[in-house]
Amino acid sequence: MPLQVITANRLTDGAAVYLTPSGGWSTRVADAHAASDPETLGAIKARGDAAVADRLVVGVYAIPLAADPAAGPARLRERIRATGPTVTPPGYRAPADAAQLGPAAPGVRPDATV
Amino acid sequence: MQLYNYRADDRRFLAERVAEFRDQVARRLSGALSEDEFKPLRLMNGLYLQLHAYMLRVAIPYGTLASHQLRALAEIARRYDRGFGHFTTRQNIQFNWIKLEDTPEILALLASVDMHALQTSGNCIRNVTADHFAGVAADEIEDPRIWCELIRQWSTLHPEFSFLPRKFKIAVTGSPEDRAAVRVHDIGLVMVRDDAGAVGFEVLVGGGQGRTPMIASTIRRFVPKRDLLSYLEAIMRVYNLHGRRDNLFKARIKILVQSLGAEAFARAVDAEFATLQGGLATVDEAAVARIAADFAPPPYRPADPAAPEVKSVAAVEPAFARWTRTNLFAHKVAGHTAVIVSLKPPGGIPGDASADQMDALADLADRFSFGELRVTHGQNLVLPHVRLGEVPELWRALDVHGLATANAGLISDMIACPGLDYCSLANTRSIPIAQRLSRRFSDPDQIDRIGPLEIKISGCINACGHHHVGHIGILGVDKKGDEFYQITLGGRADGARSALGKLLGPAIPSARVIDVVQQIIDTYLAIRCPGEPFADTVARVGVGPFKTATTQERRDEAA
Description:
The complex is a heterodimer of chains A (114) and B (559).
Chain A: E1 4-10, E2 16-19, E3 25-26, H1 38-53, E4 57-64, H2 76-83
Antiparallel strand pairs in A: 1-2, 1-4, 2-3
Chain B: H1 8-30, H2 35-43, E1 47-49, E2 54-59, E3 64-66, H3 67-79, E4 84-87, E5 92-98, H4 103-112, E6 129-130, H5 145-155, E7 170-173, E8 187-193, E9 199-205, E10 217-224, H6 228-242, H7 253-260, H8 262-276, H9 285-294, H10 310-316, H11 318-327, E11 328-330, E12 336-341, E13 352-354, H12 355-368, E14 372-375, E15 381-387, H13 391-400, E16 415-416, H14 431-440, H15 444-450, E17 455-458, E18 472-479, E19 482-489, E20 502-503, E21 508-509, H16 510-527, H17 534-541, H18 544-558
Parallel strand pairs in B: 6-7, 7-8, 16-17, 17-18
Antiparallel strand pairs in B: 1-2, 2-5, 3-14, 4-5, 4-13, 8-9, 9-10, 11-12, 12-15, 14-15, 18-19, 19-20, 19-21
């Protein structure tokens, strides 16, 4: 069974966040509590669900990591969700704490060239 | 300016809605409302939760926008989002990184310029769309926006139609030339004249895209103006009663029309209409006259004999000449033109505009177009009332802001949904495909030679990118985690010729899409009759020759 992490969207701004070992939420997958045994996963999922009741996050679910966990989530959808759009809109202005956008976003295969 | 002029009642209504949502957000943040309770409330105010953040979809009813409204949208982009907005295929604009707690303030800002995010989500009657050249087109019978506004007022929070089986989209055109894709809407209305010369509506029902694309059927050739809302109400009642609620994928009206048959559906509507005709929803002529007064033509001025002629400037400025060939649209008033502002620069994101570009366009609308703009379902903007003598000056000003791309209606003027870069429903990305295509097809001579061609790209089967009606349609599909794309040919959404695209072959990997489109174009250039546009060539020869050309390449690769 691959390593999995618990993800959700932060209630206040909808940002994709990941449950950390200390029970907090981080916008970085690398900070997440990764587990593969069902018992631990069940426990951290329950912790995530409790955060919904505490009005911290919404939409808690588990996602598998890639075979090399340093590559981030296994699925493209979750990699893009973790790192932001792979394209840079006109006039785009990233807030100080957000990753720069573009095809070079980590964990997402660069788009083929023309 | 041609714009519905909000009255005190309209403003009070919006203010009450904002106050209500402010309270709902506060209750959500305090825990008084759960997410399950809050979600339908935020959706009724256009607030979605997407991949990266909340997304706010703001309605631009029938695509008409005033310069001061566009400035407000720029301010939202700058103050509350990340510096840009995305114009959609339904004449809306989306902001992608909205904070929940900011949303009431944003709605208040919108309300201050008579805008809102109502009818942009949920199973209600959505933002009513129209021909983006409404009020301008020479071939128009009447300005359809007067009727769009009436439908907007009738349908907004209509208690009977706020919880339909599924979302419901209406498009209206006042011209026989369909620029509003009316045949792929739940209801399409086409303004027509009857034998006596009276103006009314041909009513089409059951069109749509998504996973079950269908072309709408005409269920009544002529509905008089006074009966428009009663007849619409009859359709909505039949749908509300008989539309499926047990299966999300079979809940749109097109499925009901298909299962009953258009004739039986029409009979059911007629029976309902018989009980409604002449009743409460009968159109109030005075109300229509008040709305019509708001859409009175602006004070056009006669041509300035001292102004430079478009032709003479074009003779010495090839780039300007090219742009005037593609991006101008004949205006019904002599000495004027509508100008299409392309939001599709090479390598750009279809429909995106920066806050600075929005401000610049608002200024240009004030200078050149009576402060009015239009949003097209093709994800471009329009300055609808420009004096011909001022076109060269406008072109230079647009160019300064990267807004003078000469490609309206050409291959690089693509529609693309946000796709997996933003959307939580998408399977694949759409925008990078559009960017690569627009770079491949960026040589002005080359795209001129290819001629009119519409590529439409959707990142999933929901078809927000209208791929079913693209001359070349591109649909993203997930194949075991990899992005693949199905290509269809011959789709179109231009009135009676509307058709759904036919599949070219099996889905191809992302890396091959651009080359396959090139192959399709090369084949077209080789077999077209003189002057024959791409869509007509496909209609004439079918997909066969294109299939052969692209399959041959696959065989060569495999060999």
